[in-house]
Design brief:
Length: 345
């Protein structure tokens, strides 16, 4: 029952958080972590009730003893950190790498802040009373600042803690070291309302020229002031050019048909013959067509072709052939084969 009420409230708050803005409305239900996020939100409200609004009573004293004793004066920022974590878990729980990065950066910031506050309060120790530690950097500040001061003195401790805080800011904002200066410039221009300086714009961006402006540099775009006569001549030339452009070279062809048939006279033309005699043209001899080759028939495979006609083939005499060595009746190899077969049988 209690779990159902808790998860119902968690889903209600998580759904409301996801509907604000864009990018989180289509979150897969399997990725939701509304229960954990709702717990962080409730913890942020409890801590804020004591650290911001001074909740009295035993419950308030216990909360202050735990939170203030751990973070010291930095405890006033703990509700904001818990709220940031709750919102990120409600909207983007699937981005585990980004959530881990933000958590690491915020942890570095909190540790550096606790250490700096503890150094500023003259490094109180638990032997001086837990109230003194709680009014400084808390237990975290004591554990961070006291060993560093004992090792490298106070100035170097402050420098190291400032570097740690700067590292936390870079991690939270996902800013590489080589992008620090460009992002600072962009932030300054955004705060002051300045436009991009010429030369820093994206080279791949399309060229956009507003109406009434020129793409030429300012010195080339400016012209000297024309006199009255020059202005009249310019207006006359523009008017003549406009009249010339009102009619194009091919307009006449579209105003009427390309061919107009006229009426023919009934007059008969006589004596149309010429004095030049007509000569018959010779006909060029046609090129004879090539003769077609006679059809051929292949000989079936395995058939001995025969000679046609009166041709008779006779074998040559045996004396014309060279005689070789006589055939062997038996050999040693044959004897071994015969012996082996005889033994087997």
């Amino acid at each position: 029952m209690v779990r159902g009420v808790w998860m119902g409230g968690a889903h209600l708050v998580g759904g409301t958080a996801r509907k604000i803005g864009q990018g989180a409305r289509d979150l897969d239900p399997a990725h939701r972590r509304d229960g954990v996020a709702f717990a962080l939100l409730a913890l942020a409200v409890v801590v804020a009730a004591r650290e911001w609004w001074g909740l009295e009573g035993t419950f308030g004293d216990v909360v202050h003893a735990v939170v203030g004793g751990t973070f010291g004066r930095v405890a006033v920022a703990v509700p904001l950190l818990l709220l940031v974590g709750a919102v990120r878990l409600m909207r983007h729980p699937e981005r585990t790498q980004e959530n881990s990065r933000v958590s690491i950066g915020l942890t570095a910031l909190v540790v550096a802040a606790c250490g700096l506050v503890h150094v500023a309060e003259d490094l109180p120790a638990p032997a001086d009373g837990i109230a003194a530690v709680r009014d400084a950097g808390g237990v975290i500040g004591y554990l961070v600042a006291t060993p560093l001061v004992a090792a490298v003195t106070i100035p170097f401790t402050v420098a190291l803690l400032i570097l740690l805080a700067f590292f936390g800011i870079l991690v939270v904002t996902k800013t590489p070291v080589h992008m620090i200066v460009p992002r600072l410039r962009a932030g300054y221009r955004r705060l002051t309302g300045q436009h991009e300086v010429e030369g820093e714009a994206d080279e791949d961006a399309p060229l956009v020229i507003n109406h009434g402006h020129s793409a030429l540099p300012e010195d080339e775009a400016k012209t000297k002031r024309l006199s009255l006569r020059e202005r009249r001549a310019k207006r006359a030339a523009e008017k003549a050019e406009a009249e010339l452009l009102e009619q194009y070279r091919a307009d006449e062809a579209f105003e009427q048909a390309a061919y107009v048939e006229e009426d023919h006279d009934d007059e008969v033309v006589e004596d149309v013959q010429d004095d030049v005699a007509t000569v018959a043209l010779g006909v060029d001899p046609a090129t004879p067509a090539p003769l077609a080759a006679p059809p051929t028939s292949g000989v079936p495979a395995g058939t001995q072709p025969t000679l046609e006609g009166d041709y008779l083939y006779s074998l040559p005499a045996e004396d014309s052939l060279a005689k070789g060595a006589p055939h062997k009746v038996r050999s040693a190899a044959n004897d071994r084969v015969v012996e082996a077969l005889t033994t087997v049988l």
